[in-house]
Every structure is written in structure tokens, then in C-alpha cells.
Amino acid sequence: MGTTADPGFDTETLRRGIEGETAETLLSLYADDAEIRIVDRYAQPSSPKVLHGRDEIAEMLDDVYSRDMTHRMEHCVVQGDHVAFTESCAYPDGVRVLAESMMSLRDGKIVEQTTIQAWDE
Questions:
Q1: Alpha-carbon distance 24 to 29, whole Å?
Q2: pTM of the predicted model, to two decimals?
């Protein structure tokens, strides 16, 4: 890890943000006008959940990081201004979540992200 996509984006910071206990580090990687699209069981491809801007992203991340669960970045690939990574999460009761994300960067900040996630039921 630690590969730099451009001078302002470091995958080690992404890993620390994902695996941290608060959303602060991860949120710092997003541009003010960033957009996240999430596809899962409830938000299907034809109607994904879309978050616009850092405020909406912060609200979602604060919710996620308030839960009793662990997060781990397993794989990360950087190619120019694009980053893809796999994240695995686990709740204390054994329920696991797996997410794949693809991101576009501008000036070292995330401007677009698409995440596809699935969890044990």
C-alpha cells in the first residue's frame, strides 16, 4: 500500500481512514462536491442511494463509525486518478459485510465513488 495516485492522495491515508474508529480521516479525503453512489440489497442498480457533498457523506460516515464493528481495507489498486478497493467489515455477533468501491479523483480528493456492498443475513 502507500502508493501515491498523485501528490495529494495516499492509499495509506485511505487505509487509516477506513480502519480508524472515527470518520474524520476518511472524510478528509473527499472533495466538497463529492458524490457517492451505493448499490446493495435496498438500493438496487436502477435506483442507487446517492449522497451529494461532504455534509451528506459525513452524516453517513458518522452513522457507520458509530456502530460496534471493525473495518479493514483488504485490497487497493491505483491507476492515475482512479482508485479501487475492497473493504471487509465485521460486527461482534459475526455478521460480515463486504464492499467494493471505485473512486475518481480530482486534485487529490475523491469526487466520485461507487460502492457495491453485501452482508450476511
A1: 9
A2: 0.89
Closest among 51, 66, 63, 53 to 109, alpha carbons compared: 53
Please state, in angstroms and as integers, the Cα–Cα distance from residue 6 to each residue in 23, 54, 112, following that order: 23, 21, 16
CA distance 9 to 12: 9
Residue where the block lists cell 487497493: 76
Angle at 24 between CA 18 and CA 26, to 5 degrees: 35
* Residue pair 25/18 in contact by the 8 Å Cβ criterion: no
Contact (CB, 8 A) for 118 and 42: no
pLDDT higher than threshold 90 for residue 9: no
Q: Are strands 30-39 and 109-119 parallel, antiparallel or unpaired?
A: parallel
Closest CA to 75 of 66, 88, 64: 88
The three cell numbers of residue 53 are 457533498
Q: What is the DSSP letter of 17?
A: H
Give the integer Cα–Cα distance in Å for 81 and 83. Answer: 7
The answer to whether residue 43 scores a pLDDT higher than 70 is yes
